[in-house]
Design a protein that fits this description.
- The complex is a heterodimer of chains A (about 325) and B (about 140).
- With about 325 residues, chain A is mostly helical.
- Helices cover about 70% and strands about 0% of the residues of chain A.
- Chain A contains eleven helices and two strands.
- Chain A has a two-stranded antiparallel sheet.
- In chain A, helix 2 (about 25-45) packs antiparallel against helix 3 (about 50-80) and helix 3 runs parallel beside helix 11.
- The relative contact order of chain A is 0.11.
- In chain B, about 65% of the residues lie in helices and about 0% in strands.
- The longest helix of chain B is centred in the middle third of the chain and has 32 residues, at about 75-105.
- Chain B is elongated and about 70 Å long.
- At the A-B interface, helix 1, helix 2, helix 3, helix 4 and helix 5 of A face helix 1, helix 2 and helix 3 of B.
């Protein structure tokens, strides 16, 4: 089958990307190779028939993580000044990446792990097909919507989604706690570098409303086709990065966003509790055409707004770190 | 190979290569990158298991699609892997901010010199290494702006 050849080609590309990441010494190139790696592996997910996972992996791996690492890297580049005000050389990974004994030790360690794994790994496990068949057959009837993954995420396993949103909140709290710089630092007075480049500036200004529209489309159509709350929320948060690049950061209503995130999270908890007591029939007139997928749309929108707010705050913290300067 | 489909074997190989990279990398940024690759390898494994029966996306666009569920991939691991992706992202965010804290204190992201400086600092006192990472060095107790 032709799908197999595409799969083999993508696997080979992934391995090449991995080798490039291992050999490379310059940090910016490592970051770019990582983005390319994430895109290729999301292609593998797409070929294997999981467009939702592919979308999430592409969005997370190719822009969210990359944005954060670039922000950290820019901070390194800027902060390297010693006591006399002299500039230090930029961060570079030491030559040869790893010494020979280190590589040998790593090979022995990983080889031992692999031998142990293949010795004890049970072979020929059958996947549980009954659950799969049940979800595929009954989700349209029991929950509604055409996207079975959306039905599982937002109705059958809503508490998994709730836990995931909670984990994102904890990550945001940890990042805010660890990134607090103290009174010696100020964070105002710097603008993003892209404003020097007129072409990039205006093209981002044209594209950014389209990105917002795409995010809203993904959230609103999450029950019909691939997409949903997380992917749409990520796209909406990408709109925030565009705004950061074209405007000054401090026109952002951060406190309102924090408040909104709290409210949306409580609403999500209320929806989850409602589904326990009333089943998924808590929506009146659910079986009329107009309200048929009402519950899925509500849950998708809540998760979308929640994820967008969470990523907004995370990116805001990273931008704050990147812009901070020590007061003399 | 080893009684597995090619994609599952590939995912396990990716996992071990990522562990090898994690062990031999000298720089904190490289370690974080290999952590994300480790996460991607696990996700690839589960997606590969889900695609044993078929590789059609589990989306019922028309009522006719109900006759094609035999060729569809498994929706359960896919739904769980979306959760795993977001959790992996949270882990990466905290990793990067911890690396940032270390950098602000020691002005390097090279593991060897980091360990050297941290050992020198903790030699006399009864501190352990993790005390340094979570210590807000010169902060004032006041909510983040």
């Amino acid at each position: 089958m032709s799908t197999d050849y595409i799969l083999y080609a993508l696997m080979a590309l992934t391995l090449i990307g991995l080798a490039l990441i291992m050999i490379e010494r310059r940090v910016y190139r490592i970051i770019i190779y990582t983005a390319v790696f994430s895109l290729i592996i999301s292609g593998i997910y797409l070929v294997l028939g999981s467009p939702d996972v592919a979308m999430a992996e592409a969005a997370i791996g190719a822009y969210a993580i990359i944005f954060m690492i670039v922000m950290a890297e820019k901070y390194y580049k800027r902060d390297r000044v010693d006591e006399n005000g002299k500039k230090k050389p930029p961060v570079k990974i030491p030559k040869g990446t790893a010494s020979v004994p280190q590589i040998l030790l790593g090979l022995v360690f990983v080889g031992g792990l692999a031998v142990l794994f293949f010795h004890f790994a049970p072979t020929g496990i059958e996947a549980n097909i009954e659950l799969r068949t049940d979800y595929l057959l009954l989700s349209g009837e029991q929950v509604g919507g055409q996207n079975v993954i959306g039905a599982i995420l937002m109705a059958y396993r809503l508490y998994d989604t709730l836990f995931e949103a909670l984990l994102l909140v904890i990550a945001i709290m940890a990042v805010s706690h660890l990134s607090w710089l103290g009174k010696d630092y100020i964070t105002e007075g710097r603008r993003s570098d892209i404003q020097k480049d007129k072409v990039a500036f205006y093209s981002i200004r044209i594209i950014s409303p389209l990105i917002l529209m795409f995010g809203i489309y993904l959230v609103a159509n999450g029950h019909i086709s691939a997409g949903g709350g997380f992917q749409g929320g990520l796209a909406i948060a990408c709109f925030f990065i565009c705004r950061y690049m074209i405007h000054n950061i401090y026109d952002m209503p951060v406190k309102k966003v924090l408040k909104m995130e709290e409210i949306v999270f409580m609403a999500l908890v209320v929806v989850a509790v409602l589904t326990i007591f009333v089943g998924s029939d808590w929506v009146p007139y659910q079986h009329t055409v107009l309200f048929q997928n009402f519950q899925l749309i509500v849950a998708n929108s809540l998760v979308g707004v929640k994820v967008a707010c969470g990523f907004f705050i995370l990116f805001y913290r990273y931008i704050t770190i990147e812009r901070s300067e020590k007061v003399e | 190979m080893f009684g597995m489909a090619t994609i599952e074997f590939f995912a396990i190989a990716l996992f071990f290569i990522a562990i090898f990279g994690l062990v031999t990398s000298n720089n904190a940024i490289k370690s974080i990158v290999f952590m994300t690759i480790l996460n991607a390898a696990v996700i690839t494994f589960w997606i590969g298991i889900g695609a044993r029966e078929g590789t059609l996306p589990p989306i019922m666009e028309t009522p006719y699609h109900i006759y094609m569920i035999g060729e569809m991939s498994d929706p359960v691991p896919q739904a769980l892997m979306i959760t795993a992706i977001v959790i992996g992202f949270s882990v990466t965010a905290i990793n990067i901010i911890m690396m940032n804290t270390l950098f602000r204190r020691y002005k390097t992201s090279d593991w060897k010199s980091l360990y050297k400086m941290m050992r020198e600092e903790t030699a006399g006192s009864g501190q352990v290494l993790s005390d340094i990472v979570f210590d807000k060095d010169d902060s004032v107790e006041e909510g983040a702006k």
